[in-house]
Amino acid sequence: MIVEKQEILAKLRQQLLEMQGYKSLPEASGNSFGLGPIESCFPTSTFPTGTIHEFLAESPEEAAASEGFMTGLLSKLMENGRSCLWISQERKLFPPSLEIFGADPQHIIFIDLNYKKDILWVLEEALKCEGLACVIAELPDVDFAQSRRLQLVTEKSHVTGFILRKRSKSRISATACTARWAIKPYPSATINNLPGVGNPRWEINLIKVKNAEGGTFLLEWADNRFLPVESSHPVVLKEVKEKIA
Amino acid sequence: MSRYLSIYFPNLLTDRLAIRKPELKDTCYVFTMSQKNRMMVTASSRQAEKQGIHVPMVLADAKALVPDILAFDEKIDFNQKLLFRIAKWAIRYSPNVAVELPDGIVLDSTGCAHLFGGEEKYLKNILSKLEQFGYYCLGGLSDSIGTSWAIARFGHKLPIIPSGQQYNALLNLPPVALRLTQPVIERLHKLGFDKIGKFIQMPASILRRRFGTEMLSRLGQALGTEEEAFTPIIFKAPYQERLVCLEPIKTRSAIEIGIEKLLELLCKRLSKEGQGIRLADLQCYRLDGKITEIQIGTNQSTHNIKHLTKLFGLKIDKIAPGLGIELLILTASKTEQVLIEQEKLWGGNFGLEDQNLAQLLDRLAGKVGHQAIKRYIPQAHYWPERSLRQAITLDEKTEIKWQKANPRPMEMLHKPAAIKVTAPIPDYPPLSFRYKEELHWVKKADGPERIEQEWWLSQGEHRDYYILEDDKGCRYWVFRSGHYNEDTSEWFLHGFFA
Q: What is the mean pLDDT of residues A10-18?
């Protein structure tokens, strides 16, 4: 009886989440994003697709780190040959670098605009297009009404949307996005302390998640996939390095 | 049976000047041109003609008749330009309009007159419109171009000749009305043939012997037994639809309805022939004689009415209807075979060939312009700025691979920013650098990666690139321009790594 009850409860919870706009990847594809402990932060225990994520970046260094992390996610979303739209104002992104994070730059269509309202229009219009893997928009500010509108569009079309807020002025404002991230660069580690720069490493701050708790994590991009770094403590780092070796 | 309307402008140039300068109306003035050291009158106003000044006449003679006559210089081929403009305006009355130098236009009015309530009203409508503009004109409507031409210029009774009545209409006209060359006309005059009726019944063999084959062909053309070439100023495009508005329209919703109706007609034809639109023009003929035009383009040929209506909908704002639009013409200026939409068994095609994506990009291009949409493909160059180029089409592919051996920064500055650097040993990475008033201590570094200038493309120093990581873990791409030199070495920050 108790088992049955729990099953029913789990099912109801799942239904509740789906009503709130959480759509997990279709089971057939079965690919995890390999985010490790981060994924357990989400109510569905997988990285939620078909919804809006927002990334905060204060400096160009943080923007670059966010773009790296986003591209890593993008590579998984674009796995079945889908294409992606990258909407921006004064874009600095260098397309060849996307290849390092597993996304084919040729499948990404860049839209360079001059006005913020154009970005919003294009973003909404693109999110409506079901064939797209993901839509990324560099948008400094987005308010609650705007984000709610975008969120409603994605719930219908199941397209994932990333909003990169570079040097946002009103960062405290609430938005209807599923998750709010802040990605910061983190000192890389080289094998056996050899000279040179190691694989890209980031401090991932999951500031807000709808219906769940966020947290801070360390992540590395190695061999075309995310590799969770166990602890940020420098002593432990050494062990991690050996593990990688 | 074909019907042709010929319109004759006896005072084309002078009327035009009177439109420009209303104070000249009802005065004597002429256009002149220097010919063999004499100033010859090439066009005269109606008032001047009443005084007996005709073309050709020497200006001095004209001045003898009217001492205070005004003379203007004629611009070469201006009448041709003017006739072409009038012909373009007249397209609202018939899709096929031709210019007849030096002083008229011809409309192929076959099947057009009933739209205006019969031939009489049709003719009256055109002539009164032209008169309103200020052009004095005469018309002739018959089965052949030749007879219409003759009636417009020499007919004094009814301008409309019923079908098949060319013979009777020509009988009383002078031989000049046959568009014959000067020597033939002179010979006819010498022989006393002052009317066409006097020789039209002569056997063909005699006419040919006396006046050459020209006479026979001109007679045939006037009677309609011989085909005459008709070269319209604008050839009707293979995919074109017209919509004549009963009342001039100027509201957005009216224009939308018009566009939708035209698209329905056009797309029905296109889909039958397996064609799709790549480029389409909508021309709006306004009441005041101006034409406004909008154009749409698509990334993938399509005959989807809904999609095309949406694309036009984005551009309707650019139509200035003025006092109202009389005629809408939709032309598919570029068509291509359409890809057959296939029902997919295993989910849709989500790549760049996806139709939804192509339609989305069409809509975006309609709103923000084509130049905003970019796709990049690799180019075989090492110089970072040149290692990629914009793809021309949505599905353009290249054999060249992105270079993966050396990492490239996530964000790259369009113009490298100058930085101050402490680099004690040649060819070693810097110890620290200062960028935007902030000091960065370098903890880890990679490099140098030397990238030479491609001398066949541009001149300048080579670059030695280093990847630097500072104490906070931020990663940068910096380079030294040229060889190491303590005093003159210049360092730049070029990008940020993830």
A: 81
